[in-house]
Write a sequence for this structure.
């Protein structure tokens, strides 16, 4: 039913959804001026995938990027950045050798608050983050930079409430279904055209050592065959438009592939788009220190035409 | 020089005792206990504070802060509305680098971090803010590895102690951690705060009872149970007591004092001080694998399939007669058992450094698959070999102390005898078996040392 609202003219709408993973290696390999470390490249298949996603989004008219990242981890409900402007330096605590990035972003606080309010009236615990000293998490920054390196669109930044850690994958899914519906409703009411970003890897088992040259691609591969099988299965389901089946298999996927979908972003985006049965576009797949990463796009803006 | 751990502390990571203790009597009690602990540190004459923070996860081994003065304004991801904590810390960079080197020497993956704007985790900031007013005492901060098991965490502590001793430090060891870590998932008023559930409270009380009795090692051994009972599966499992127990020699007779136990947003928060002085009761009961050297990735997926056969087929050990075999020793490369018992004696098959499970070679193989020589660490190989001997003997109900005769085989006497001899002196040399060392042309796998052992059963 809500599929019909997606792309509906005159109202706000979700014009595209993206699975846009955030390993800092990708920004490191790009050598943008904002990032301090310098690389010789690496992870090209994924970076070409992002290039393809960017080219595709160029053809889409949108106002705001709405992102949920598993690295702003809030245990006390779901939080939203409520500052108009965020600028600081982000250093990845896990890979500080790769990611020391000067970010500068504008936040659509009006839309943030609208989603916040909608989620609150649906019974979720929510909070606006208004501390001016707050540093935005590196996951959010990497996905935003790789999707839109011009940093010229306002963003909405949503935290991960770690429902799976606190309760179970089933509760996480219910919470993210609620948050997804609240997101769609608030966007519709806002009159804005939005691109949604779920910032997470698929399988998420890392190597525990790093090469002297981190971008040495002769060492890069999936951590295990089981992880590969899961990644391919989930990608095929996305390509076939089987969102409901993905949601049904999410508990097994999170557990067996140690998937970063445990943070809720994947379940959130599928629900926000109304659990679409339209196929997603695969822009790229690759591994990063053994983890599986896919760059996908759901071109919601086209669905009304079909 | 002889250094020592002069005291140990368990402290909570939440920002409330720094930012708003006045809002809740329990938070104030934690703050007061922090102050009391700070006074105890002053009295101890400590010249180093070592932090193991459960709130700084790492993936590539362990990370050690090595910036001289990390400086920023810390805002908690959850409790940002309580305010900000500006910090400027003083790090003992010489110690940090030496610890990193000591980790490498014991086979661990480890690195230092020295970057402007590095986000020091909330737990470390809170602990140092309250324990070390004015940064009088230099500190060092270590991460918690997401994938490490008890063996790796124990070796991490042993490497740290190597440096404490070498540099003659009087060090305070601090585990920054919650007890039960289930918080309320909705905002609450300060006066509504309580431990999230009765079960959490009961387990917390049990941990505190053990710590008050100085039984730190028992808490270490209960860590996996505690993790499954009262810990939310956040990014890292419950490991800080493994580290802290190993920092104290895995003892159960420390002198403990619980300075406070309260709730912070539902989680169990305690300040506990432990002195190395023996409380005179109980002896240690440390029956877990006491590892000196880390042998590589232990496989968090419990995948114990060999990842490398080194070009030689692996066999299941044979089982004839009084054969004795164990999964804790490397797979044989032919049809033979790990050991046989004859009368009061145990005869072991020749054993080298290959690891049970993944078949890796600590210290590295001596040549690659094409036969090109590789640089390898004979001391690491010798240590791993003796660890394998010890495990076979222990599994057979004996121990390294019962070894009576050893024949050692080295593939490169000139290169390796000194290193092998050094490790021998630290281990079997103290037991005192007879020994014969031979130079041989090759061993079946690319290893440099193998031991043939006879021991009392
Ligand atoms: Fe991540």
């Amino acid at each position: 039913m809500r599929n019909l609202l997606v792309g509906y003219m005159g109202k706000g709408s979700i014009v595209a959804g993206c699975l846009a993973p955030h390993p800092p290696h990708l920004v490191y390999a790009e050598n943008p001026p904002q990032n301090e470390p310098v690389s010789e490249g690496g992870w090209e298949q994924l970076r070409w995938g992002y290039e393809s996603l960017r080219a595709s989004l160029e053809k889409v008219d949108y106002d705001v990027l709405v992102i949920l990242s598993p690295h702003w981890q809030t245990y006390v409900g779901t939080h939203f950045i409520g500052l108009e402007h965020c600028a600081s330096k982000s250093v990845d605590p896990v890979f500080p050798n790769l990611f020391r990035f000067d970010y500068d972003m504008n936040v659509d606080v009006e839309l943030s608050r609208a989603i916040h309010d909608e989620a609150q009236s649906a019974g979720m615990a929510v909070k606006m983050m208004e501390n001016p000293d707050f540093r935005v998490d590196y996951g959010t920054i990497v996905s935003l930079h790789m999707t839109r390196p011009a940093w010229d669109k306002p963003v909405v930044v949503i935290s991960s409430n770690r429902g799976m850690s606190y309760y179970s994958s089933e509760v996480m899914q219910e919470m993210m279904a609620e948050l997804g519906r609240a997101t769609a409703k608030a966007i519709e009411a806002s009159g804005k055209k939005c691109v949604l970003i779920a910032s997470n890897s698929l399988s998420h088992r890392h190597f525990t050592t790093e090469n002297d040259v981190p971008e040495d691609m002769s060492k890069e591969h999936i951590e295990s065959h089981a992880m590969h099988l899961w990644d391919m299965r989930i990608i095929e389901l996305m390509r076939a438009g089987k969102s409901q089946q993905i949601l049904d298999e999410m508990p097994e996927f999170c557990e067996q592939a140690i998937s970063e979908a445990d943070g809720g972003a994947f379940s959130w985006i599928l629900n926000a788009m109304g659990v679409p049965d339209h196929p997603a576009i695969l822009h790229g797949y690759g591994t990063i220190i053994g983890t599986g990463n896919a760059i996908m796009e759901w071109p919601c803006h086209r669905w009304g035409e079909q | 020089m002889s250094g020592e751990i002069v005291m140990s502390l368990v402290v909570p990571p939440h920002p409330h005792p720094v930012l708003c203790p006045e809002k809740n009597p329990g938070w104030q009690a934690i703050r007061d206990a922090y102050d009391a602990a700070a006074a105890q540190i002053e009295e101890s004459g400590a010249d180093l504070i070592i932090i193991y923070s459960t709130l700084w996860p790492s993936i590539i081994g362990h990370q050690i802060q090595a910036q001289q003065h990390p400086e920023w304004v810390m805002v908690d991801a959850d409790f940002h509305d309580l305010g900000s904590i500006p910090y400027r810390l003083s790090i003992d960079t010489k110690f940090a680098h030496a610890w990193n080197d000591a980790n490498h020497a014991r086979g661990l993956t480890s690195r230092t971090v020295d970057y402007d704007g590095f986000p020091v985790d909330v737990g470390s900031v809170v602990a140092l803010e309250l324990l070390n007013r004015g940064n009088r005492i230099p500190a060092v901060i270590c991460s918690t590895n997401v994938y490490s098991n008890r063996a790796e965490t124990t070796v991490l502590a042993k490497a740290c102690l190597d440096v404490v001793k070498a540099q003659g430090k009087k060090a305070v060891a601090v585990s920054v951690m919650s007890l039960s870590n289930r918080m309320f998932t909705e905002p609450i008023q300060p006066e509504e705060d309580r431990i999230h559930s009765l079960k959490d409270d009961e387990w917390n009380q049990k941990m505190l009872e053990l710590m008050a009795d100085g039984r730190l090692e028992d808490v270490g051994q209960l860590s996996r149970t505690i993790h499954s009972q009262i810990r939310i599966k956040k990014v890292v499992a419950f490991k800080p007591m493994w580290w802290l127990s190993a920092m104290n020699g895995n003892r159960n007779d420390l002198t403990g004092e619980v300075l406070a136990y309260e709730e912070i947003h539902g989680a169990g928060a305690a300040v506990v001080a432990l002195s190395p002085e023996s409380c005179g009761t109980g002896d240690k009961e440390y029956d877990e694998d006491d590892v000196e050297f880390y042998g590589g990735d232990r496989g968090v997926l419990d995948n114990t399939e060999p990842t490398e056969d080194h070009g030689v087929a692996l066999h299941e050990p044979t089982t004839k007669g009084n054969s004795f075999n164990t999964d804790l020793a490397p797979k044989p490369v032919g049809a033979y058992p790990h050991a046989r018992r004859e009368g009061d004696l145990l005869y072991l098959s020749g054993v080298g450094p290959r690891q049970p499970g993944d078949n890796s070679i600590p210290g590295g193989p001596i040549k690659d698959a094409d036969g090109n020589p590789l640089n390898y660490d004979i001391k690491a190989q010798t240590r791993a070999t003796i660890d394998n001997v010890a495990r076979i003997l222990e599994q057979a109900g004996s121990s390294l102390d019962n070894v009576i005769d050893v024949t050692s085989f080295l593939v490169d006497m000139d290169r390796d005898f000194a290193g092998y001899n050094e490790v021998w002196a630290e281990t079997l040399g103290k037991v005192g078996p007879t020994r014969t060392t031979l130079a041989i042309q090759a061993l079946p796998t690319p290893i440099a040392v193998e031991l043939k052992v006879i021991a009392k059963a």
